[in-house]
Amino acid sequence: MNAVSTLPPQASGHTPEGPVQPWLGRAGRRRHILPGFHLTLGYTLIYLSLIVLLPLLALVLKTVTPTKDYPSVSQVVGHVLAVTMDTRSLDSYRLSFGLSFAAALLNGVFGFIAAWALVRYQFPGKKVFDALVDLPFAMPTAVAGLALCQIFSKKGGYLGGPLYDWFGWKIAYTTWGILIALTFVGFPFVVRTLQPVLTDLAAEVEEAAACLGANRWQTFRRVIFPAIGPALLTGIMLAFGRGVGEYGSVVFISSMIPYRTEITPQLIIIKLEENDYIGAAGLGLVMLVMSLAIVLTVNIIQFLSARRRGRA
Amino acid sequence: MKRATTDPWLTRYLLIGITVAFILVFLIFPVCVILVEAFRRGVAFYFASLGAEHSISAIRMTLMVAATVVPLNTVFGVCAAWAVTHFKFPGKSLLISMIEIPLWVSPVVGGLVFALIFGRQGWLGNWLAAHQIQVMFAFPGIVLATAFVTFPFVARGLIPLMQAQGCAEEEAALTLGANGWQLFWRVTFPKIKWGVLYGMILCNARAMGEFGAVSVIAGSVDDKMTMPLQIENYYQALGPEGLPRAFALASLLLLLSAVTLIIKIGLEWRHLAPSYARPPKPELVP
C-alpha cells in the first residue's frame, strides 16, 4: 500500500571502517530515510490549517460566541436555531435538497445510459462525446448558467419561447430551471464513476449467465446491475452533494423568490448582506453537516461494497 | 453470430441515441449559444464589448487571482503529496481526507468562512478596520476564498501518482549522495511533472471560473470583480449593453475551459495523468 520502505541493514552506512554517512544523521534514531519529512509535513499542516481548518473552526465558533446583540451563549444559540428552523430556511432546504436529489436521480438514469453506451458500443465520434462529458467540470458555472438561462427563458430566442407557446411550459426562473442547472453540473459524476466499473466487468460472467439460459434483460437485472449498483449509488450521491452546494449556475436561472425559488446558499448570502453573521454561520453549519452526511454515506457505500466483494 | 454479451440492436441504437441527444442538447448546445450570442453583432462589436472598462478590470483581477492561487496550491500539493507518499506517520489517512474537505463543502460556505473572519462583524473585523487593512471586497479576500475552493486539486492528482511510483529511485539517489534539492529536482520532479501540470490546469480552471465563494467575498464593488462575477453583474444590469458584454466575457471563459479540457484529455489519453474524473476515494472511515 504505502510506498514507504526501509533500506536493508547492510545499506544503512554503518561500515566498521568508514564514517557514518552524513545523510543518515544519527542513524537508528531517524524513522524516515528520505529527506524533507518535517519541512513538507509542517508546511502541509500549516497551509491546511490556515486555508481550511481554522476558517471552518471560525464558522463553528461563530454559532456559539456571544456578541453585542446577543450577549449570552444561549441567546446566540437561540438565534441560530431561530434562523435555521425558520420557515424560509426550511423551504430553502426543501428546495435545495429536493431539487439536488431529483437532479441526481436524473443523472443516475442518463449517466448510466451514457456510461453504458460509451463503454459498450461503438459509434462515430464516440471519443469526442466521451471527452465532452467532462465539460461541466471544466466550464465555469456562471458561463453554464448564463447559457442555460438564455436557452430556456421565454425571450432568449432559443427553446424557451417555443416551449412556452406550444406547451405552456415556463422553465427559466422556475424550479424547472434550477433542476436543469443542477442536472448540468452533476452530469459527469455518474458517468465517470460508472465507466471504470463497467470496463472492468468480466464478459465471462455475462456469458455464463447466457449459457445458463438467462435472456439479456435477466442478465442485466440479476448479474450486471448488482455488480455496478454501488458505483451507481456513489455517483448519484456525488452528484447530489455537488448540487446541494451549487450556486453559480442557479443564480442566473432562478428568480430567487423567497419560499419558492430560493436555495440555501442564496439565503446565506442574503443573511450576510443583512449583516446577520450569526444566522449566516448557522445556515453554513447546516450545509456543512449535510455535506458531511453525504460524504459519510459515500464512504459507507464504498466500505460495504468492498466488504461484499471481499467475501464473494 | 449473436454473442452473449451484445445487446439487441434496438436497445443499442436507443441508448446511443439518448446519449448523443443528451450530450448535444445539454453540453454542446449551451456552448454554441455562448458563441452565437457573443458574435451576434459582429467581431468589431465583440471586441468593443470585451474592451469595456469593467470587463478589462475583471479580466485583470481574474488573471491576478489565478496567478497567486495556482502557485500557492501547487507548492502545497507537491509538499502534501511528498509527505503523504514518502513517510509513515500517525493520522495520515485523516490528513488525506482533510485535504479533500473543500471538494465537498459548498463554495458559498467556502466564502462564508472568510467573511466570518474578515467581515465587519467577523473575528478580525474590528482589528482590520482599526489598521485600515482591506480584506473583504478586495484582492486578499478573493485570493483566500479561491485558494479554499481550489485547495485539493494538485494534491489529489499527485498522491495516487506518487504512491504508484514508489520511492525506490529516490532512495537510490540518496545512496549515491544526492541532497534533498537534487533529489527532488533531478529524480522526483521529472517523474511527476505531467501530474503537476494536470493538477495546475484543473486548479487554474476552477480558480478563474469560481463564482460562489468569490461572490460572498467580493459583494458588488465594480472594480473588484472577477470575470464570473462581472458576467452576473452585466446580466443583472440588462440594458442594451449588458447582455452582449456578459456573453463576450463568457466566451473568454469558454475558451479557457476548452483549453483546459484539451490539455486534460491529452494527458489522460497519453496516460501521463490519472483520470481525475474518477470519484474521490474518501478515507474518512479508517
Shape of chain B: globular
Q: Count of helices of chain A?
A: 13
CATH architecture of chain A: Orthogonal Bundle
- CATH architecture of the largest domain in chain B, by name, is Orthogonal Bundle
What's the count of strands of chain A? 0
Please tell me what the overall shape of chain A is: globular
Q: Write the element-wise H/E pattern of chain A from the N-terminal end onward.
A: HHHHHHHHHHHHH
How do the helices and strands follow one another from N- to C-terminus of chain B?
HHHHHHHHHHHHHH
- Calculate Rg of chain A over CA atoms: 27 Å
> Pairing-aware structural class of the strands and helices of chain B?
mainly alpha
Rg of chain B (C-alpha, Å): 23 Å
The greatest inter-chain interface is formed by: A-B, 110 and 113 residues
Number of helices of chain B: 14
Q: Structural class of the helices, strands and pairings of chain A?
A: mainly alpha
Major sheet of chain A, described briefly?
none
Poorly predicted segments of chain A: 1-30
Give a short synopsis of this structure:
With 312 residues, chain A is mainly alpha-helical. Helices cover 70% and strands 0% of the residues of chain A.
Please provide a written account of the structure.
- The complex is a heterodimer of chains A (312) and B (286).
- Chain A is mostly helical and 312 residues long.
- Chain A has one domain: Orthogonal Bundle (MetI-like fold), CATH 1.10.3720.
- In chain A, 70% of the residues lie in helices and 0% in strands.
- Chain A has helices spanning 37-62, 73-84, 87-120, 126-132, 135-138, 141-152, 160-167, 175-200, 203-211, 216-245, 250-253, 264-273, 277-311.
- Chain A is globular.
- Chain B folds into 2 domains: 1-38; 42-269, MetI-like (MetI-like fold), CATH 1.10.3720.10.
- Helices cover 74% and strands 0% of the residues of chain B.
- In chain B, helix 3 (53-86) runs antiparallel to helix 13 (227-237), helix 6 packs parallel to helix 12 and helix 9 (153-165) runs antiparallel to helix 11 (180-209).
- In chain B, 47% of the residues are buried.
- The chains are: A mainly alpha (312), B mainly alpha (286).
- Chains A and B meet through helix 1, helix 3, helix 4, helix 5 and helix 6 of A and helix 1, helix 3, helix 4, helix 5 and helix 6 of B.
